[in-house]
Amino acid sequence: MARDLAIDLGTANTLVYMQGRGIVINEPSVIAVNRKTGEVLATGQEAWGMIGRTPGYIVAVRPLRGGAITDFEITEKMIRLLLQRAGVSRFSRPKVLICVPSAITEVERRAVTDATRRAGAADAQLLEQPMAAAIGADLPINEPVGNMVIDIGGGTTETAVISLGGIVALEAVRVGSFDIDAAIQSHVRREHGLAIGERTAEEIKISIGSAMATAEDRDAEVRGRDLVSGLPKTVVLTAQEIREAIEDVVAQMVASVVRCLAVAPPELSQDFLTRGMYLVGGGALLRGLAQRIERDTRVPVNMSDQPLEAVVLGAGHCVENFSALRGMFMDSRR
């Protein structure tokens, strides 16, 4: 009998939870394809290592951008490979629960379920990421109290107020960690005349990026291609200049949280002041971001113990209790 699966189909990373076994796959959402033959050469970590390093006929791409499918065919291939690695075959076709951003449209939702069914799933259901994150953070979502979750992923920032098993208020913007990487690339190109790739920008973000000044501020050497001479070049970046470079993106994230607080019912708003908000997602790991949100909203912010895995763990809990929680799937908003 096939074990049911939960998939956090993220813009940056894809995680797969198998019923009874826990998380079995946690890799970047990247796939490398030979354009001449259509053959898939690599996925996940191996494909991520190929970004910016392949010949012209081999492309290493992220099939999801802004939380939405940008290439249906490649996404289907990636999901098919994920299911195969999880042991799915013609004789064991599981039900699959997929976590998707609440910002995606009905057409995009249909694209995700169609791609999953074509890839070999017996059935595909959708669960919005903020709801899955709240379950993964072990919040009392079925009680009449306000639970506020901020999920910052690679392509989206979603803030949701959850009470009595439903989303009461929601603010979603298509701004995430990849926008921070793009801002760093743009800054280095503009201010230092240096071209750097997506991977290098991400490494800078992890190394010295921050939303507020911290005690860990330091400089970093960065190597790239000089835009004038075309030769390799090294420059030194400071934490302060990177903080200024990504300020617009961070401000958009914080503004979306403020807007969600503004539309939350007053009775539930009282709960946030005592219980605080919960920050999850890979973007939550940006240094100083929790403190920045807390400063600008004057509401306590709690970091999830497992910010990267919170969504898939929440979906995994639903997979373990598929029949009991089925009413929560497809659209958790009421």
CATH structural class of the largest domain = Alpha Beta
| CATH level-four homologous superfamily name of the largest domain | ATPase, nucleotide binding domain
In whole angstroms, how far apart are the ends? 34 Å
Which percent range fits the helix content? 25-40%
Percent strand equals 25-35%
In brief, what are we looking at here?
The protein is an alpha+beta fold and 334 residues long.
Tag the structure with descriptive keywords.
Nucleotidyltransferase, domain 5; 334 residues; 36% helix; 2 domains; single chain; five-stranded mixed β-sheet; disordered C terminus; alpha+beta; 11 helices
Describe this structure in words.
- The structure is a single chain.
- The protein is of the alpha+beta class and 334 residues long.
- The protein is built from eleven helices and 18 strands.
- The protein has helices at residues 44-48, 72-85, 106-118, 129-136, 177-192, 198-208, 239-245, 247-263, 266-275, 289-297, 310-320; strands spanning 5-9, 13-18, 22-28, 31-34, 40-43, 58-61, 64-65, 68-69, 95-100, 123-128, 147-152, 157-163, 166-173, 194-195, 220-226, 232-237, 277-280, 301-303.
- Helix 4 (129-136) crosses helix 11 (310-320), helix 5 (177-192) crosses helix 6 (198-208) and helix 8 (247-263) crosses helix 10.
- The two termini are 34 Å apart.
